[in-house]
Every structure is written in C-alpha cells, then in structure tokens.
UniProtKB/TrEMBL annotation:
SUPFAM superfamilies: P-loop containing nucleoside triphosphate hydrolases
PANTHER family (UniProt xref): IRON(3+)-HYDROXAMATE IMPORT ATP-BINDING PROTEIN FHUC
Designated name of the protein: ABC transporter ATP-binding protein
GO molecular function terms listed in the Swiss-Prot or TrEMBL record: ATP binding
ABC transporter domain span: 2-240
UniProt KW ATP-binding keyword: yes
Localization per Swiss-Prot or TrEMBL: Cell membrane
Keywords annotated in UniProt: ATP-binding, Cell membrane, Ion transport, Iron, Iron transport, Membrane, Nucleotide-binding, Transport
Superkingdom of the source species: Bacteria
Topology relative to the membrane: Peripheral membrane protein
SMART domains: AAA (SM00382)
Organism of derivation: Ravibacter arvi
Presence of keyword Transport: yes
C-alpha cells in the first residue's frame, strides 16, 4: 500500500520553500479506485507527483509497501508504480505503438529489446484503451483525448500494481470520461489506482474512495457518500450555500436567473420534468399545481409527441416544443 506519514508537500528552490499542504496522514486503499478531488491550486498535482517519487517531500515520508520511496531505486519504483501526468510529452516523432512500448522498459534487457510477452502486453494495453487502430499513427497527429488514452495505455503496459493519474479525463467528452473511469474501475481487481479529477459528479458515482483536499491543504478521506453526508463536499464545491453542490441530488447546480413573475405547471412524465427545468433555468418561479396567480402551463402527451397549453387571461395558446412555449410565455399577452 501507499502511505503518507506526517507528509508535507510543496516546492523547494535553493533556500526558499513554498508549502502546499502539510501534516498529511492517509493510506491509499488497496485494490480500489480512489478519486482525488479539490479546487484549482489545492495541490492535487503536487500530491500525485510526490506520491510517485517524482517530487521530493518537504518533510515527513511516503511509504510504498512499508518502504520509504527515498529508499527505493528508480528501477524498483518503475516496476511497482506508473504515473500519467498532464505535461506535454517530447519526441512527437514516435508512433502510438512505440510510445506504449516504452512502458515495457523496466522489464526488458539492457538493449531494450521487446520479447514476445512484451509485445503481447503492448497490444493488450492498446486494446484495453481502445486505440489499437491508432497504433501506427504518429503521436503528433493525435487529438488531446487520443494522446491521453495512449499515455494510459503506456502505464498499463508498464504492468505495475499502482497507477497514479493526474486528471486523465481532462480532454475527453462525457461518454469518453465514463468509459475511461469504468475501465479504471475494472482494473482494480488486480491494481490500485488513484486519479485526480474536477468532475465531482462522476467521481461520486464511480469511485470506491475519495481523497478531498481543500484550499488550506487539508485532506479528508472516505467513502463518497460519507463525505457528502458530513458536508465536506458541499463546503468546497458550493458558493454561499446558494449554488454549487447539492447534497440532496449529488449534482452541481448553477446560479439561477431571477425573473419577475411566476407560473403554475400541471402534468406528469418526462416532458413535464424537463419543462420544469426549462422554466427554472430561464428564471420563472414555478408552482406545481393550479390556482396560482399568473399563467398556467399544461403538459400532456399527444401520441408520440408532448404538447404544451399556455392558459393566460382566458386565452389558450398551444406550443409544440419547449422553446416555443418559452417564446409564448415571454411575449406580451
């Protein structure tokens, strides 16, 4: 396992030190997917670099399987731990296959020759990340998302028990993020994985464990649901308790527009729910029932298509879409 004991992280240049976080004591749960959450500048990247041995500790210690990182050789570390950072890589003349094959260096001979098992591991890693078709392409020709997948494939080819990833979903679309995290989750049957992310909602739904670092460098750890219930997630990701993380739904809510006037809405089903969302998004005070001052909106299914009726001052107007309804609602009677 990876443990931090009275760990202080930061940067040291000559006689100057810039501390990022201190007094850290925690353990990375073995065989689980752990998400590292925190606002910009809280030290997520610094912590990951320190846990991997790429950045020296200011004080305290990091233990890898009960042995201090500082006591392990680079070869030892590279066989136990792999890391994917955000920094751009050099050598853009490499093909995707060649990049992923670099992950086998700790396991090859002095000449770096790839044997049969090494090649099998490279192809297995390409397939696992869904980029086999890109194997001959130069990495300079990849999109940011494709390059990120290639770097993760390289980490898989390295065949380590621990994998640390700094914002691996940063350049992926929504479905790509889910696919990647789901893949990481499936790997925890034989690996221990830590990844940092800004995607709070996905982390709460898919991670086994959360490390939460705040702006003061304090780290709280636990099950996602426990950190929600104790208010730790809401304290970091909310603004004046008016918008941000919603403890009830686990969603990030945005500031709402305040528009004078309100309306009542009647109906049920999917169209009704999305009508409510549209009205709240555009600033209307919504009451779910009749008898309220202001116009009334009735949402009903008409065959395969929903239908909206706007009743205002003895006038009934029909809309065939939510946008049409909003246009009618904002127009003068």
């Amino acid at each position: 396992m990876i443990e931090a004991k009275e760990l202080v992280i930061g940067y040291r240049a000559y006689k100057n030190e810039r501390l990022v976080a201190g007094g850290l004591n925690f353990t990375l749960p073995d065989g689980r997917l752990t998400a590292l959450l925190g606002p910009n500048g809280s030290g997520k990247s610094t912590l990951i670099r320190t846990l991997s041995g790429l950045q020296p500790v200011i004080s305290g210690d990091v233990l890898l399987d009960d042995v201090s990182l500082s006591s392990r050789s680079r070869v030892e570390l590279s066989k136990r731990l792999s890391i994917v950072l955000q920094e751009p890589i050099r050598g853009t003349h490499l093909s995707v296959f060649e990049l992923v094959a670099l992950g086998r260096i700790p396991h090859t001979n002095r000449m770096g020759n790839l044997a049969g098992p090494d090649l099998e591991k490279v192809y297995e890693s390409l397939n696992a990340t869904g980029i086999t078709a890109l194997s001959t392409r130069k990495i300079s020709q990849l999109s940011d998302g494709e390059l990120q997948r290639a770097m993760i494939a390289k980490a898989l080819a390295q065949e380590t028990h621990y994998i640390l990833l700094d914002e691996p979903t940063a350049h992926l679309d929504v479905l790509g993020k889910i696919e990647l995290i789901d893949k990481l989750r499936s790997l925890t049957t034989s690996k221990t994985i830590l990844f940092s992310t800004h995607d709070v909602e996905l982390a709460l739904q898919m991670a086994d464990h959360i490390w939460l670092i705040d702006e003061n460098g304090t780290v709280k750890t636990g099950a996602p649901e426990d950190l929600v219930l104790e208010g730790s997630i809401g304290n970091i990701y909310s603004r004046n308790q008016e918008w941000g993380f919603d403890n009830q739904t686990g969603q990030i809510l945005v500031p709402l527009i305040n528009r004078s006037g309100g309306c009542s809405v009647e109906g049920s089903g999917l169209a009704y729910e999305w009508t409510l969302k549209a009205l709240k998004r555009t600033g209307y005070a919504v009451n779910t029932g009749s008898g309220t001052a202001g116009p009334t909106i009735r949402v009903a299914a008409s065959g395969a298509r929903p239908q909206w009726m706007l009743v205002r001052e003895n006038t009934v107007l029909e809309a065939r879409s939510i946008q049409q309804l909003l246009d009618l609602l904002s127009s003068r009677p």
